[in-house]
Specification:
Chondroitinase Ac, Chain A, domain 3, 10-stranded antiparallel sheet, about 25% strand
Length: about 325
């Protein structure tokens, strides 16, 4: 009895544990990605701001071995905000072929007299390894180009003074020159591809259509990429799955046969009962069509009865025969 009473509580604990694991697994993965992205940004920012002291042109940022081996590349540029507003800037993120085209009429927000702009590229063997490790593509899509980052800092306020870039005219464009697998293998189709804007934790924040180039029009700073739709192939069925399907189909066929036979028996029984009732009603109608007789009930059955005689008997005198 004790074991029987404990069984429901054990089942409830197991269900609660499974639900908790399902609820907290995804947030933990997102938090881990956010910490890794933040660490990469901090390392790139520190190296870039050190190199940009006294430099007024685009420089490649050398990164630690653990980042460069993972395929992270960066370049940086320091310029006055009035020059950014008047002329804009066009720069590549490392040697990737990804070009950032910042048009005129762009200002840092909040305002800074000098701004340090950092261009990042997350790649690796195959072109998308590092990006896929830190950034999650939309469901049903795969990254077709390196994920790139556009970050800006107030060069006069210190390392943590991050600012955004607000375009008051044309938007900032990110042009992707070298698209990698799976887009290259099937032929890149811009109508089905999507520009992706990533949040700080690597999750998808927004998607929109791809412009010609191919290129993406972006707002502010952050991390961006291109994703293409992929065809999800169903996994091959194992022997146990095939046996389970066979048993399920056999049980379904058997249950369907029993149900069909039951319905047929009920239909036949109903038809026979209806036929008998109909025949009895016809007999009663024929009986009632003649002279009207009385009715009497005997043991639950109703039948006609004659309660009076139609002719009364009379004595008839017959001649006497002698």
């Amino acid at each position: 009895m004790a074991a029987t009473s404990l069984l429901p509580s054990v089942i409830v604990h197991v269900v609660v544990a499974a639900a908790a694991a399902a609820l907290f697994l995804r947030p933990c993965a997102a938090q881990s990605r956010a910490a890794n992205i933040s660490a990469v940004e901090a390392a790139v920012r520190d190296r870039a701001l050190e190199l940009l002291r006294g430099a007024g042109h685009l420089v490649d940022v050398p990164l630690p071995a653990n980042l460069s081996d993972a395929g992270v590349q960066a370049s940086a540029l320091r310029m006055r905000s009035n020059a950014l507003w008047a002329d804009g800037v066009s720069a590549a993120a490392g040697s990737s072929g990804v070009v950032f085209a910042i048009p005129p009429r762009v200002v840092p927000a909040p305002f800074a007299r000098r701004v340090a702009i950092v261009f990042e590229r997350f790649a690796g063997d195959g072109g998308t390894t590092a990006g896929a490790a830190l950034f999650a593509a939309p469901r049903g899509y795969a990254l077709a180009a390196p994920v790139v980052g556009l970050l800006a800092y107030d060069a006069s306020a210190g390392h943590d003074a991050r600012v955004s870039l607000r375009a008051l005219g044309a938007p900032v464009r990110v042009e992707f020159k070298n698209l990698s697998s799976p887009a290259a293998g099937n032929g890149f189709n811009a109508s089905t591809a999507r520009c992706v804007t990533f949040a700080a934790n690597g999750e998808v924040a927004a998607t929109h259509s791809v412009a010609s180039g191919p290129a993406c029009a972006v707002t502010g700073t952050g991390h961006f990429g291109i994703a293409v739709r992929v065809t999800e192939t169903p996994p091959a069925a194992s022997a146990s799955m095939l046996r389970a399907r066979w048993w399920a189909s056999a049980v379904g066929v058997g249950a369907g046969g029993v149900l069909g036979a039951s319905v047929l028996v009920l239909a036949v029984a109903g038809a026979v009962s209806w036929s008998r009732r109909r025949r009895r009603e016809e007999m009663e109608l024929r009986a009632m069509a003649g002279e009207e007789l009385g009715r009497m009930t005997v043991r639950g059955s109703t039948m006609p009865s004659g309660k009076v005689m139609r002719t009364r008997p009379e004595m008839v005198e017959s001649p006497s025969w002698r």
